[in-house]
Amino acid sequence: MLSKKTKYGLKALTYIARREEETPAQVGEIAKSESIPQKFLESILLTLRKAGILGSKKGKHGGYYLRKAPSDILMTEVMRVLEGPIAMVPCVSLNFYEKCDDCPDENLCSVHKLMIQVRDSTLQVFRNTTLADLSEKNS
Amino acid sequence: MLSKKTKYGLKALTYIARREEETPAQVGEIAKSESIPQKFLESILLTLRKAGILGSKKGKHGGYYLRKAPSDILMTEVMRVLEGPIAMVPCVSLNFYEKCDDCPDENLCSVHKLMIQVRDSTLQVFRNTTLADLSEKNS
DNA sequence: TATTAATCCTATCGATTTAATAGGGATTAC
DNA sequence: GTAATCCCTATTAAATCGATAGGATTAATA
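Above: the input entities. Below: the structure tokens describing the complete assembly.
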């Protein structure tokens, strides 16, 4: 299940990408437009900033802006920052690998085999989707 | 993240499918072989039986067996029983659909669009994989 | 029929994670 | 110097997860 954090984060990024003003987008503005609790959104945008996806301007008239063009922001990157591993089990994760306690041999594990396939098919979607795709207004 | 329940369930099903004896497989035997807490496994097999995937024989010399050939047991079915919805958000779930509180219009929601793609690519894996595939011994 | 061994069922518990809130510090425009 | 905004840490309430406990029911068999 996708966490609210990730859902809110994706909505916020889309909002910023679709925006046309030159000034940075403020948390309050985004929260109101997307029906996201403001304080929660604050912490999410902070995470995205620390990950280098967003930049920020502090103080009055401050806010958040994209560090790259929407077409250069891949879903793989966003999802890993917000949701963590893309794989459903750590033993097939490319970026967050961990061995299973119980499994004596990964190559014989039926779950492992299946989850590699799921991971790869999900990765293919995220690698081929950018924030620009999410931000297109037509459905 | 895949729950332990699902992971254990898949391992147990694989164990039963690979087994060659005619007698039903007992919980204790499976638990020991696959390093699964026995009481936890009991409840998982019960779920699979209620869903019609496993059959059981009660009393002494009882145990569990597959109701269908492994090649007729699709991962879509198993995953829905054990893990629940395949979709990452209820608003794109085929079998467990629910509208989002916050979203005024699904067709305009960037998350919705992305998650439909993820759902479809995951479904493609599960629809094309049966318990027989999981149970092949070669990696 | 009594014993044993298995599934079946309900309830509960502890730990973790999630979603959200609280409260204030630091910074900048005006 | 005041108001507006991002920055940061801590806390909380609720939900979920993984596991355990304790026994009821059923069937084989001695």
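Note for the figure: The radius of gyration of chain B is 17 Å.
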